[in-house]
C-alpha cells in the first residue's frame, strides 16, 4: 500500500479526469473508499467536463472541481493545467492523490510534486524544468507524450501491474478493469468498488407491466465499430413481446439516462460507457462482445468474441474481397432468442428471492 493510506489528512484532493463513465467505474468507488478511510477529512475531487455531473448525482456533498476546457493543442493544454495547479496550491491540501494515467494529469501531478505539494499516485518521470528544456530545444520525443510506460512513474508500489497482460493471469476480478486498477495497481485492497447511483426507483418498478424492457444502447463501441443490426434486433424483440428503447433516440441529460436504465430489465451494449452506467443503477447487461474481451468489463452476460467483421469494422476491401466476405456480427434473430432466455432467467431469479 502506498503512503496515501498511512496518512490521516484533513483535506484531500483526488484527481481522475477521464470520461463520465470512467468516473462512474473508477472515480466514484475511489472517492467512497477515501471517505470511508478518512471519515473526518474534507475530500475534494478534480474531474473534467461533464464527468463532474456523475459525482454531483452520486455524492452531492462532495466538493467537485472541474476543468471545463482541455485544449487539444499541447502547449495550450500545458497552460491550462499550470493554471489549475495554481488553484490547487492555493487550497493548501494536506494530501493530493492522482489516480489518472493520462499525460496532462501526470504533468499536473509532477508540477505539484516539484512545487513541494504533498502528492501521491501517478506523475511524470522527469521534472517540469527538464520537460520545458526538452520542449525548448525540440528534443522531446512523441513517444514520451503518448506512451504511458515512457512518461509515467507512480508512488503506488504495484502500478507496474498496469502494464501487464492482466486478463490472462490467475487473478480475474469480478469488477473487471476498474477493480483490477484500484485494487491491484493502486493497492486499495479493501475497496468495495461501490459505484451505485441512487435514482430513487421504487422496488418492483421494472415489473409494473408484463412486458420486459430492453435498452439497446448500441450507438457506442470501444472496439471501433457499431453493431449494424440494432433495428432488426429491436423488431425481433418486439415480436417476442418485449418493450424496446434505443439510446440513440433519447436526448436525456445524464440523470434522465440513468433513470431510464434503472427502469429497464436488461441493457444490451457493446463495450462502451453504457455498461458502466448500467452497473451504477444495478441493471443487468448483455455485452455484444465483438472484438472486445469481456474480462475487461465483466458483464452479466456476453456473446463470444469474434474477429473484426470484414463488412462492418471499416476494413479496406477490394470489390472481389467484399463480394466474398462473410459478416461476423451476431445475427439479430439468434441474439433476440438469447435475450428472451436471459430475461426469463432473470425473472425467475427475481421471483425466487
Q: Please tally the helical runs, counting DSSP H or I stretches of 4 or more residues.
A: 14
Low-confidence stretches: 1-8
Mean pLDDT: 91
Q: Give the strand order, joined by hyphens, for the main sheet.
A: 3-2-1-4-5-6
Q: Report the principal-axis shape.
A: globular
Termini gap: 39 Å
Number of strands: 11
**SS strand fraction:** 5-15%
How does this structure look, described?
The structure is a single chain. With 353 residues, the protein is an alpha/beta fold. The protein contains 14 helices and 11 strands. Strands 3-2-1-4-5-6 form a 6-stranded mixed sheet. Strand 4 (95-98), helix 4 and strand 5 (119-124) form a beta-alpha-beta unit. Helix 1 crosses helix 2, helix 1 packs across helix 11 and helix 9 crosses helix 14. The model is unreliable at 1-8 (pLDDT under 50).
Short description:
By secondary structure, the chain is α/β, with parallel strands linked by helices. The chain has helices at about 20-35, 50-60, 75-90, 105-115, 130-135, 140-145, 150, 175-185, 230-240, 255-260, 275-280, 295, 320-325, 330-350; strands spanning about 10-15, 40-50, 65, 95-100, 120-125, 150-155, 215, 245, 265-270, 285, 300.
Amino acid at each position: 500500500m502506498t503512503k496515501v493510506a498511512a496518512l490521516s489528512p484533513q483535506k484531500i484532493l483526488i484527481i481522475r479526469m477521464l470520461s463520465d463513465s470512467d468516473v462512474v467505474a473508477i472515480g466514484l468507488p475511489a472517492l467512497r473508499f477515501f471517505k470511508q478511510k478518512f471519515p473526518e477529512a474534507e475530500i475534494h475531487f478534480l474531474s473534467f467536463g461533464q464527468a463532474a455531473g456523475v459525482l454531483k448525482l452520486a455524492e452531492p456533498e462532495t466538493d467537485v472541481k472541474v476543468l471545463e476546457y482541455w485544449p487539444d493543442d499541447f502547449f495550450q493544454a500545458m497552460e491550462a493545467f499550470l493554471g489549475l495547479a495554481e488553484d490547487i496550491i492555493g487550497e493548501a491540501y494536506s494530501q493530493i492523490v492522482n489516480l489518472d494515467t493520462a499525460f496532462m494529469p501526470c504533468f499536473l501531478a509532477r508540477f505539484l510534486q516539484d512545487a513541494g505539494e504533498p502528492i501521491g499516485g501517478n506523475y511524470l518521470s522527469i521534472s517540469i524544468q527538464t520537460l520545458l528544456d526538452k520542449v525548448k530545444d525540440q528534443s522531446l520525443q512523441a513517444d514520451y507524450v503518448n506512451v504511458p510506460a515512457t512518461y509515467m512513474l507512480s508512488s503506488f508500489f504495484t502500478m507496474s501491474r498496469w502494464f501487464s497482460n492482466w486478463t490472462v493471469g490467475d487473478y480475474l476480478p469480478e469488477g473487471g478493469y476498474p477493480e483490477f486498477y484500484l485494487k491491484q495497481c493502486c493497492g486499495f485492497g479493501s475497496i468495495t468498488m461501490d459505484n451505485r447511483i441512487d435514482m430513487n426507483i421504487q422496488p418492483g418498478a421494472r415489473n409494473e407491466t408484463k412486458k420486459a424492457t430492453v435498452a439497446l444502447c448500441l450507438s457506442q463501441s470501444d472496439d471501433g465499430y457499431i453493431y449494424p443490426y440494432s433495428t432488426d434486433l429491436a423488431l425481433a424483440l418486439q415480436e417476442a413481446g418485449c418493450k424496446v428503447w434505443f439510446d440513440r433516440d433519447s436526448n436525456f441529460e445524464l440523470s434522465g439516462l440513468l433513470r431510464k436504465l434503472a427502469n429497464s430489465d436488461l441493457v444490451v451494449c457493446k463495450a462502451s460507457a453504457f455498461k458502466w452506467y448500467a452497473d451504477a443503477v444495478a441493471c443487468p447487461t448483455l455485452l455484444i462482445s465483438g472484438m472486445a474481451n469481456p474480462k475487461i468489463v465483466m458483464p452479466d452476460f456476453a456473446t463470444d468474441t469474434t474477429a473484426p467483421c470484414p463488412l462492418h469494422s471499416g476494413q479496406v476491401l477490394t470489390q472481389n474481397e467484399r463480394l466474398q466476405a462473410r459478416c461476423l456480427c451476431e445475427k439479430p434473430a439468434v441474439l433476440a432468442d438469447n435475450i428472451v432466455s436471459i430475461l426469463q432467467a432473470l425473472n425467475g431469479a427475481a421471483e425466487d428471492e
